[in-house]
Amino acid sequence: MFVLKGRVATLRADGAVFNRGAVYVGDDGLIAAVTPGDAIPAGFENAPRITAGGVIYPGLIDLHNHLMYNSLPLWTEPKRKVPWTSHNQWGGAASYSGTISQPARLLGAAAGRALLRYAETRAIVGGTTSIQGNPRGAVPPDNDLIRNIDSERLGTHEDYIRVSTLVADSPEALESYVAAVKLGRGFIAHTAEGTDPKLRKEFQLLDQVGVVKRQLVAIHGAALTGDDLAQLQAGDSSLVWSPFSNFWLYGATADVKTAKAKGVRLCLGSDWGPSGTRNILWELKVADLWNKSQPTPVFTDEDLVRLATSNPGEALSGIWPHPLGRIEKGALADLIVTTPGTDVYRNLIDATESDIRLVVIGGRARYGVRPLMSALAPTATPITVGRLARSIDYGDPATTWKTVLAALDKVRKNPALAAQRAADAFHALATAGIFATGTTGAYTPGAGLAAGAAGAEAGGVDAFGVDAFAGVGSAGGAFVLLPDMPAPELDVADRMRRGPAAETPQAVVVPPPEPLTTGPSWFDAVDANPFHGGLLSGLRDYA
Question: H/E/C letters for each residue in 456-508?
Fold first, then answer.
């Protein structure tokens, strides 16, 4: 336990900001008190008192991502001259497989543990404490670094969230999700991503089967109309806005002005490396740029900050057993500290990775400046973030940022050996009964996997991707991540199945992992894409 002292932006409903506040963090990973206001709790008499040296906020929540692809650079299809109109199009682009799908599959199969740690590190340096978008396949323990929303158990055996990245095309395809929602599970679903009005049918199907309820988190919704947004509001559902990715691929984004006017709960998500921001801190800036471009601003600065804190916190608080996204007694002790600023909301919007002083997740300091980390996490290891000296705690003394990069570099330098390692990993999974070997030498899902998937989709404890894969991390040393995005190099059956991709990845060129911080080369790539009409080029001004 410890006490973190400083200016506290609570993001509670009352908007309280305490200029001389203190957050009491318990050993149970929860906030025991926030002063002034709450009574000082018993048991903290000898707890360390830490001066934050900045503004204390709730941890940032990225409610939409695809972590497996976040080591890859921004992508455009070289011959494409006009924006896409549907999510069904770009996965078949000529350069997509070789540039995105195949490198990600090889990294996920040959160095899955390191790839996931890279993605979480990239998120945490931007103040992210919870992120959605775990790949299929092996899943790390709870709170291994940051919270993985899809698989977070919160110290229980419950599986709280169902996720669909494939868009259903029939009521039958949604039956398992309907059953889960009836049991109170959360349902995160991609819907209406693009500008084609026909995409509205995807949301209308969700409404038809009765899942547009409190537990629904709808992702993108760029093609939704005012009537559709009214349906979301009526169901008390949430909508995740990923403006960078929408503008990058489609040249347009969701009608968040109407959504806000109708009272829809709006949240932010940074999507993924090939068409998204480095982390949710930068997605907040995209929302700010869009807001400034409107004839009359739609959001206040406080509204914008809530898109990445209290709003997604409220969406998850209806599903998880503890509140989050706000600093209050009983909430999850997920906190960040930034350098100080005059206005707490504008301060966070303008903050970059260099301004993140501390990240606390579940009451445990995970990342931050070395003086704070030495007091709270003395076994944390060094990490250099751009020109910044920081410390990070992976929960395992043998794991450091250098070992993470080294594991990824082995794949890049010797893809043939990595492909063999992937084949060995798939073989280990087959031996463990998670995959079965097909007659062509490829691996296909085994009975154990199918049983786990059925349990998950029925809302049972043995959730696909977690309990059904509980042995994946130790099966012959394998920790395999599997794609949750289009993989056109696989056959149609493989691409459309809900289970893991059956074909082991081939030796392909893998680019070096992207820098953790947002910098000039990334801004140059942003400028080169005409689809956003120059709007996203304004991000350079925040650096």
Answer: HHCCCCCCCCCHHHCCHHHCCCCCCEECCCCCCCCCHHHHHCCCCCCCCCCCC
How confident is the model at residue 219, as a pLDDT? Answer: 98
Query: For residue 9, what is the DSSP state?
Result: E
Whole-number Å distance between alpha carbons of 119 and 154: 21
The size of the chain, in residues, is 543
Cβ atoms of 56 and 337 within 8 Å: the answer is yes
| CA-wise closest residue to 122 among 536, 520, 481, 514 | 514
pLDDT of residue 497: 44
Whose structure tokens read 């109170």? 184
Give the Cα separation of 524 and 527 in Å (integer).
5
Contacts of residue 438, defined as CB under 8 A and 6 or more positions apart, other chains included, come to 444, 502
The C-alpha atoms of residue 230 and residue 299 are separated, in whole angstroms, by: 19
The angle at the Cα of 433, spanning 431 to 436, to the nearest 5 degrees, equals 80
- Which residue in 347, 165, 277, 215 sits closest to 532, CA to CA? 277
154's tokens: 């919160």
Strand partners, 4: 23, 50
pTM of the model: 0.93
By three-state DSSP, how is residue 148 classified?
strand
DSSP H or E run through 119: helix 112-124
Contact 445, 468 (CB under 8 A): no
Burial 113-124 (b: 16+ CB within 10 A, else e): bbbbbbbbbbbb
Bond into 371 cis (ω within 30):
no
Alpha carbon separation from 538 to 246, 268, 305, 346 (Å, rounded): 16, 19, 19, 16
CA torsion, ordered 483, 485, 490, 491, to nearest 10 deg: 130
The Cα–Cα gap between 126 and 390 comes to 13
Q: Kindly state the tokens that stand for 334.
A: 């997920």
Helix/strand/coil (H, E, C) string of 151-177?
CCCCCCCCCCEEEECCCCCCCHHHHHH
Instruction: Say if residue 1's pLDDT is above 70.
Output: yes
Which residues 6+ apart lie within 8 Å of 502 measured at CB? 435, 438, 442, 443, 444, 445, 490, 494
- 410-456 confidence digits (pLDDT tens): 999 999 999 998 998 888 887 777 754 332 233 333 323 332 332 33
Q: Residue 234: exposed, middle, or buried by beta-carbon count in 10 A (0-12, 13-18, 19+)? A: middle
Compute the radius of gyration of the chain from its Cα atoms: 22
Indicate the helix (H) or strand (E) that contains 139.
none
Query: From CA 324, how far away is CA 391, in angstroms rounded?
Result: 25
Print the SS3 string covering 392-414.
Answer: ECCCCCCCCHHHHHHHHHHHHHC
Q: Maximum distance among all alpha carbons in the chain?
A: 68
